[in-house]
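cache lookup: miss for this entity combination. No prior model stored, computing from scratch. Input as submitted by user K.M.:
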Amino acid sequence: MEKMPAWADAVLVPIISLLLAAILSALVIVAIGEDPVAAVKLMVQGSLGSTYGWGYTLYYATNFMFTGLAVAVAFHARMFNIGGEGQAMLGGLGVAVVCLYMPWPHWSLALIFATLSAAAFGAAWAFLPAYLQAKRGSHIVITTIMFNFIAAALLNYLLVNVMRPKGSMDPATAKFPETTHLPTLHDILEPFGIAFSKAAPANVSLIVAIIACVAVYFLIWRTRLGYEIRAFGHSESGAKYAGISPVKITVVAMLISGGLAGMMAINNVMGEGERLIMNSTEGAGFIGIAVALMGRSHPFGVFLAAILFGFLYQGGAELALWTSIPRELIVVIQALVILFTGALDNMVRMPLEKLFLMFRKGDA
Amino acid sequence: MNTAADISPAIELKGISKAFGPVQANKDISIRVMPGTIHGIIGENGAGKSTLMSILYGFYKADKGEIFISGKKTLIPDSQAAIAAGIGMVFQHFKLVENFTVLENIILGAEDGAMLRPSLAKARQSLTDLASEYGLDVDPDAIVENLSVGHQQRVEILKALYRQADILILDEPTGVLTPAEADQLFRILNRLREEGKTIILITHKLREIMDTTDTVSVMRRGEMTATVKTSETSPAGLAELMVGRKVLLQVDKVPATPKQTVLEVENLRVVDEKGVERVKGISLDVKAGEILGIAGVAGNGQSELLEVLGGITSGTGVIRVNGQDIDLTGNSSDGQSRRARGIAHVPEDRQREGLIMDFMAWENTAFGYHRDPAYQSGILMNNAAIRADTEGKMQRFDVRPPNPKLTAKNFSGGNQQKIVLAREIERNPDLLLIGQPTRGVDIGAIEFIHQQIVALRDQGKAILLVSVELDEIFALSDRIAVMFDGQLMGFRDPAKTDEKELGLMMAGVVEEEAA
Amino acid sequence: MDFLTIIQVLDSTVRLATPLLLACLAGLFSERAGIFDIGLEGKMLAAAFFSAAIAAMTGSVWLGLLAGIAASLFLSGIHGLASITFRGNQLISGVAINFLAAGMTVLIAQSWFKQGGRTPSLMSEGRFNPIELPFAEALSDVPFLGPIYSELISGHSILVYVALAAVPATWWILFRTRFGLRLRAVGENPAAVDTAGVSVVGLRFAAVAICGVLCGIAGAYLATGLQAGFVKDMTAGRGFIALAALIFAKWRPWYALSACLLFGFLQAIALRYQNIDLGAFTVPVQVMDALPYILTVVILAGFVGKAVPPRAGGEPYVKER
């Protein structure tokens, strides 16, 4: 017999966790002497009240979809890829190489190759930790953390010493050529007569991210590979019985994970920055952890959670602009979401299971 | 002078009961063990021996019943209380810190004061004393993981003695020992008895009971079926009590008509991760249209034999299926390639291997066969086809509830097993490997599963059956092989042998066949 | 490089190694007891803020230190609750703690001081000031040894000496006391501890608490010793370098000292020189930044002296036969 119906596990547990995180966040706002209701209003207004706000919300959400999917795919193989940040940085490098050093007749071609290159760079950065985990048992959490820092140092070196245009003081690449400029939501929606803010950075990458969500859904639930990844994630001994190679699945799942994280760069580097700068990822790799936990590692859940976090990021920026609440409030909310949906999962789940059991007995 | 009546038993259990959910592990168990004796508790796997001892050591709380130590009613809520009551336990799986020294392991939890140095010095001294007193020699400064298994076990015994244990419980102590090490252990136990210690020996090996114990209790299915003086019983008598006269499972089957040889195994050896040889040069064959049953007490290499045949682990030797060699160690040695060669495998442990417990029934139906072209449409898996296939299988194998979307862990044990069986049998394999087909399965499903296995035989398939249930071996097998300590003790015709003979063979005793 | 420069670099090495060392020993206690802790960074950060904030408000660096330790202990408590009581994922808990600290410190700093997420600069009494060891002044003119004593050994704040003293203390606790024996045992095989009648939960909470105290001192040193006040994200990955050092040191106290001095040295070099000219080629400063992490990966891969973590690390203990 099931302890709890599936819907409760998939919906109720995350919602209660989110609620707990929200209540604590509200308390934090009260504690620093602000009005939580006014804060929420301001956040909603700032992020969803205008196409400008939406443009930013969706821009952030695009980043989080990629990194959230990255963490989710690794979770399915029971691995914790904490290296999304570094993989996304390398993805930026992949985008920059394609955009700067190859001539492109049209943005669409540039986008396709930039996407592939970003994914390849991100995957390459995930390969060594994956290989070491599979072959030598080196803990992937530790190695991916180390690779985040190594990525930052590598990027720093390349931007300062190699890719920086002569005469520039900025540790950044030159601006990408005009032909690699991605259409923004404004450009896309204009032909349909829909007015959308010109200033907002949301761009065609959002569509790629949504395609990635769908693709990951099919990968995980409809392909043989996804089947093997899930089987391995649930039971390594079972996987061995079925003839599924643990080494192969570990490496392949991490390559996909790293590739997805790397693909984020088409949004923040190619779409928004149009040049590669230091710290262009802005912690999105880590937010992917919260997004994947919140979305229960399901692509649709990741999609929703990414939009939620997009809203929080844009709303938080607005708050910082108009009140004395700093943007870091979002980091706190993110921490609480990770804490409640991830580490303290049992704290939410156990009483809930008891509750359902009580109702069951009541019925019988 | 004390007369026997004055001495209270070292341990007395009265009416101990313990249930895990619906499973009654111990039912109203009472024992009296007199001080200075060795008391054996014998029974098959899952008879409830270990549960009983875990209650005595404070790991589980009994639902009902009382414990008396030296005549005093004693509550044992945790291990600390057990230690304080003078009980020491040597677990089947040692509870040692492997990279600590012997000395450190001995004082852990029984230190004198906050500083280690005096504790270590004291322990070193008493270790020397204990060593000379009981013949328990161990280098106090050796790192435990560098010691042989036999010496590690001595450390466990020393741990208990250092804590002034008067009652020593040993759970299947010889399961991991070589015969020579086992002999040494029994010499030590005898010395301990002479010094007045009380020893409870849990085992399923008849010979150990006969050789060492003063009294013996037999457990079967959670119940204590008999307590007798060892000198007043015989191995045959104990074997009968142990296996019991269960309702004989009747399987209607016609005599087998074996045809060509399907499986040939020659000199197969399997070495586990720790470097211990588990299968020691086995040779056997299975013909089309026959069931070869492998009997034996769990842990004598049967699991490893099945695993290597099923491609889960590697080994050395020769395995031929339909006359062709099978790759044992190379790249094409895995479950996928075995299936491609017509070998189906119902593993012993359906929860860890045969099923993904968090997968739905239909996903489990494709498990291991998920690359089958019939389950694909283009690059995607054809989930609708798998579900339809599952529905048919669930109907034919009477899986209840017949809902392909139910998660595996929510089926009963028997229905889980039917899902595995349907998947493997309907592949129409040339050879079926099947381990513990009815472990944890309800009576109704047992009959059905047995019928399916016989039906497959009658279709002319070769079947290799491994079971620790002697009844099951008798009910199904056309030939019986007995495995002991990684080797085959011999083959028997089920019509010309009995439980007694097999029981002895399972304990490593081969009687001369009557002419 | 002349002699005085070497002394200066080494002096800077000691100061930069101090927070690493404290955090590394903190992680050592936790991980030796079987609780992985990737939240060292967050605990240090929280301690850095609260120590600076309280020191700024009260003018007492000692009260600041206590506040820093309290903040770090609070986060340790969350980690213990999640990973010991509720048997949650220790790694995810650590990640959450890092973010919680990163966000809350700025939030509270802004609310209290309204200086853009920093504390006011600490005046002298709000800081741990250098201690002149006896005769430092008098001996400074002695050739060679004089500068070593007066510049390198003398003239650090008390917490530097505390950190250095913590190394033998840790060694002593781990290998010479009953508590240490049990602590190491619980990280290797909690079942052995449990069957010996000792509480696994109690030991693990104790270890996590010690970890909190040491991280608290590390954070306080950052904000009130190394620097004069708290700024946003001032730990700058030191918690992770400490984690790297811990692996590099194979979870041993004296090795931890060497590893932290090495990593501190790399930081000191990176701080002083942009690029190191070795004649044939130059070593860019980023190599110095990345070297601790690269070395750790090499160690983890087991190509050079395999680092074997405590065997029960990361796994919640569930009682079984």
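stored under new cache key. Residues 91 and 186 of chain A are 25 Å apart (CA to CA).
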